[in-house]
Task: inverse folding
């Protein structure tokens, strides 16, 4: 088995005249030869000829390549995250964007929760709320019922309620005019019959009562999505449909429902059967409500029931 142990470097010196010339530039071009020989036979196995300039050029090129490669890896690859002390300048911006997005999502969720709560209040005949109430276990939460009411406050409340009930002071009356003016649509009659009780928002009656034959089919007044379809103590089997242009239609006191929550219905499609369910019902009829931008409007202004 042969080994390579002897390394001999032989310098090929220039002629006598070139020996007399000295200088840094001349020395760079002196030629050298690296010879690798067999230890026993002295046979040359590898010979490399080079100059100092070649060595300097090779080292400089290799150094530049390593520097460029290192900068590229640090600047354009994920390896920079593993370098201790290297700051990621995009992290702060990403955190800020995530924080803003979280706040927006939280605000949207509160608005949707408030919208759903108001829809349930409309269906169950309760008053609307403008803000989501605080949790009961919150020590800082104070309900309005806990606040004392003075005699002047009661008189002011009664005066304002009287103003709202007279001379078209009720805000829904203004919105009612806006439905026909701003939205040029035609409503499908949900049920043909006789109106037994008309729209009286001052008395808390936010719709019209239509009396018809038993087992009469109730139909959707517009295209929309069923957002509520359930039974409540006050209004019995009730169904609510959300339409375009912020229009909401409510159908109460039904004997049965033909659609479920989440289904899309078209105008004129059967959604329920007339009935007499719920504590507030006084006979077989349909209580129909029409809401626009969160305010009740008189359905008789836009739909011919009789």
Result:
């Amino acid at each position: 088995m042969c080994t390579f142990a002897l390394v001999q470097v032989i310098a090929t010196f220039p002629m006598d005249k070139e020996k007399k010339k000295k200088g840094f530039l001349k020395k760079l071009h002196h030629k050298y030869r690296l010879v690798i020989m067999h230890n026993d036979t002295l046979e040359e196995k590898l010979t490399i000829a080079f100059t100092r300039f070649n060595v300097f050029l090779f080292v400089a090129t290799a150094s530049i390549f390593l520097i460029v490669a290192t900068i590229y890896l640090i600047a354009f690859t994920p390896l920079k995250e593993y370098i201790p002390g290297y700051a990621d300048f995009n992290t702060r911006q990403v955190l800020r964007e995530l924080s803003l997005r979280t706040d927006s999502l939280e605000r949207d969720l509160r608005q949707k929760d408030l919208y759903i709560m108001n829809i349930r209040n409309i269906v169950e005949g309760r008053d609307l709320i403008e803000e989501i109430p605080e949790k009961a276990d919150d020590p800082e939460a104070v309900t309005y019922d806990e606040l004392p009411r003075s005699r002047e406050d009661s008189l002011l409340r009664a005066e304002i309620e009287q103003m709202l009930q007279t001379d078209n002071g009720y805000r829904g009356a203004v919105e009612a005019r806006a439905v026909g003016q701003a939205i040029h649509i035609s409503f499908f009659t949900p049920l043909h019959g006789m109106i037994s009780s008309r729209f009286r928002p001052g008395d808390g009656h936010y719709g019209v009562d239509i009396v018809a034959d038993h087992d009469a089919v109730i139909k959707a007044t517009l295209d929309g999505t069923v957002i509520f379809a359930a039974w409540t103590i006050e209004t019995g089997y009730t169904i609510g449909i959300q339409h375009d242009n912020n229009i909401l239609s409510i159908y109460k006191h039904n004997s049965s429902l033909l659609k479920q929550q989440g289904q899309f219905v078209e105008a004129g499609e059967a959604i329920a059967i007339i009935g007499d369910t719920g504590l507030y019902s006084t006979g077989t009829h349909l209580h129909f409500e029409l809401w626009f931008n969160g305010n009740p409007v008189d359905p008789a202004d836009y739909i011919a029931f009789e």
